[in-house]
Amino acid sequence: MPELEPVEIALLFRREAEKIGFSRIGFSPIEPIARHRLFQSWLERGYGADMNYLGDQSDHRADPRRLLEGAKTLVAVALSYAHDPPAEKLSIIGCGVRDAVGRDAQGRVTGKIARYARGDDYHVVLKEKLHALARAVSTSLGRPIVYRACVDTAALLEREAAQKSGLGFIAKNTMLIAPGVGSYVVLGELLTDLECAFETPTEKQNETRCGQCRSCLDACPTGAFVDAYTLDARRCIAYLTIEHTGPIPRELRSLIGDRIFGCDICQEVCPFNASAKTGAPELAPRPRNVNPALEDLLALGAAQFRKWQRGSALRRIHRPQLQRNVCVALGNVGDASSLAALGVALESKYPLVRMHAAWAIGELGRRLKMAETTAAILRARRPIEEDEEVKAEIALAQASNASVGDV
User: Fold this and answer.
1) Which are the contacts of 354, defined by CB distance < 8 A and separation ≥ 6?
2) Catalytic center residues
């Protein structure tokens, strides 16, 4: 079989990608990524927080050629996870977003999980589809092809690669937006020895699509955007609830609301997502991950926790992190009935959980004007608490309640 021309190979990839269900596909040459200097500058300013692996891999992220010797083309794909959410009401107040408190059928307060993590693990789904794409092209060509499938665990600046491949543009909130699809997409790449025809969009075309809109910047509750196109991970709810393994800074806890894994706020207010089409069925939400009851999550044992996160992107966090996040959410949106669960959490073997349970109990006392009730819970724990950080947190919670009495 005669070798196809680059244009024909690109068309072959496009046909097979459509059959497999990808939302977008594009192509770019394997060469150093010019925008790497911006990434390096971002790290140098400390905006990468304690994600040290980003700095360790920085040089590798500068050049996709390091990932596959002899590669000629980077095939970038986008897979949508946009699915109609349950009734999640958002209203913009000042510079932040406030949500109506969610409750389940039993009247218990619920929390929010970022849309991408509500279904099957996108790493697995996307990688399987990338391998299927490579196999289909190989079969059509009648010969094996050399390739490497990458998802976001590879040392690659994938949003920059996706933009360069023509999938979309990087928006002011640093997300990649594929016009007509939106930003609710996960990205993947195939590095291959095949030569594909490509059209690289200009820098000007990529960076002017947001116009004067700054909805995402103004809506961020924690003020994580230093400016357009610049995110400070140290204040980002997604970072704080997933990547960060230590205590959540006190000044940011009340701003996190009921979000327990990730944050979609800057996407929820984006006009490009207003008409997002239904995403891949493999990434449809699992019922138990749509607005789960916070008290149930706080009570999960080790085996139950593993079952809850199995086969999903929720595997990214450990149980104490989840319980930390749930405590914060209960402090923000919980009611008097939440005190029992928080009281149990105050006895956790993990200081990280006890610390945030103490904060949450204090917050409920202050917010619901139940300081005398919550002070009694904190007072009972303080003499037997051995961890100095937890003791300090209990003391701060007691101090915040000192001037508030029960009604």
Assistant:
1) 345, 346, 347, 348, 381, 385, 387, 390, 393
2) 152
For residue range 260-297, list pLDDT tens digits in order: 999 999 999 999 998 877 899 999 999 989 999 999 99
Task: Say what the pLDDT of residue 105 is.
Answer: 85
318, 320, 324, 326 alpha-carbon torsion, rounded to 10°? 70
Dist CA 260 CA 258 (whole Å): 6
pLDDT at 401 over 90: no
Identify whether 90 is part of a domain: no
Assess contact for 63 and 33: CB atoms under 8 A.
Answer: yes
Q: What is the pLDDT of residues 249-258, one digit of tens each?
A: 999 999 999 9
Give the structural domain span for 253.
215-269+287-401
Q: Are residues 26 and 66 in the same domain?
A: yes
- Regarding whether 136 and 58 lie in a shared domain, the answer is yes
pTM (global) more than 0.90: yes
Residue 202 sits in the same domain as residue 229: no
Q: Which of 207, 238, 261 is the last residue of a domain?
A: 207
